[in-house]
Specification:
3-stranded antiparallel β-sheet, 7 strands, 11 helices, globular, about 10% strand, two-stranded antiparallel ribbon, about 50% helix, about 290 residues
């Protein structure tokens, strides 16, 4: 089955979708196959992978879901393990890499659109929290770490399950960043309620597979994953506030409570963010 896609020529990232899809396919990463592309008209004949995404299996038993999650992790690990020389050939087709400015933008997006628009926290309180020394250090800390290619939006609705195997979609935001950011996007996905033990099993699986490939997992892995989870949840909550209240897509607002719970429990484990944790806890208990 094929799907005919007509994309908006004015959106820069849409113009690079085909090149990214072919790049991923050439490196054994499962994505929809491209059969025809008319760049002038913005038309693509693309493989139809079906509608059964990872999200649609959220009510299945963990025995079923774990296999699907492991398949998804196997695919994203392939992306993360591509050598820098290979990644360089895609540079012209990718958006700006994850740098300190982008991490700071994610934080601001959260403060403006979640705390400001959704919870109506006054500007002076938001500014007081936004300048917490630890919060300002985190973007620089993460930006100073070695980068790999990341999906950027690696969550359950962007993973199609076909014949029990995970396929990646909506990868046009792919860019250099941290592997832990993709992993955090999957494990702290507000759309799916993973339990603590389920999340721990998947982290163990990821670590074991990395070691099998000769990739060392150092003692800072858990810390990096927490920081990336904080950033990702802030980005998601900012998006829910913006899409729900500015763009009128109200259905996004129902994911705010679970994302806030995850953010609060994550922030609780990061030194120097006690004031932010206190506010999040207060908002959750209202």
């Amino acid at each position: 089955m094929l799907i005919l896609v007509k994309y908006n020529l004015e959106r820069e990232e849409n113009q690079h979708y085909v090149q990214i899809a072919k790049f991923l396919d050439s490196h054994g990463i499962r994505v929809p196959k491209i059969y025809f592309h008319d760049a002038t008209e913005g038309l693509i004949w693309i493989e139809d992978l079906g509608e059964r995404d990872l999200y649609s299996y959220r009510h299945e038993s963990w025995l079923v879901r774990r296999v699907f999650y492991e398949s998804a992790i196997d695919q994203i690990r392939k992306l993360h393990s591509l050598p820098e020389s290979v990644c360089a050939e895609m540079k012209e087709h990718l958006p700006a890499e994850f740098n300190a400015a982008l991490y700071r933008w994610e934080q601001k997006y959260f403060f403006d659109n979640c705390l400001g628009r959704y919870f109506r926290i006054d500007e002076s309180k938001r500014k007081e929290l936004a300048v917490l020394p630890r919060l300002r250090e985190i973007p620089k800390d993460l930006a100073g770490l070695p980068r790999v290619l990341v999906h950027r939006d690696f969550q359950s609705q962007n993973i199609i399950m076909r014949n029990g195997q995970a396929h990646l979609i909506d990868f046009q935001g792919m860019r250099p960043g941290l592997a832990e950011y993709d992993l955090a996007s999957l494990l702290y996905d507000p759309y799916v309620d993973l339990t603590g033990p389920e999340r721990a099993e998947l982290i163990t699986y990821y670590r074991e597979q990395q070691v099998k490939q000769g990739i060392t997992i150092d003692g800072d892995f858990d810390s990096r994953l927490r920081l990336c989870a904080m950033q990702r949840l802030m980005q998601a909550l900012g998006a829910y506030g913006f899409l729900g209240l500015v763009k009128g897509h109200k259905h996004f607002l129902k994911y705010v409570p679970v994302a806030m719970e995850s953010l609060c429990s994550t922030v609780r484990q990061i030194e120097g963010l006690q004031k932010l944790e206190a506010l999040l806890g207060k908002l959750i208990s209202q």
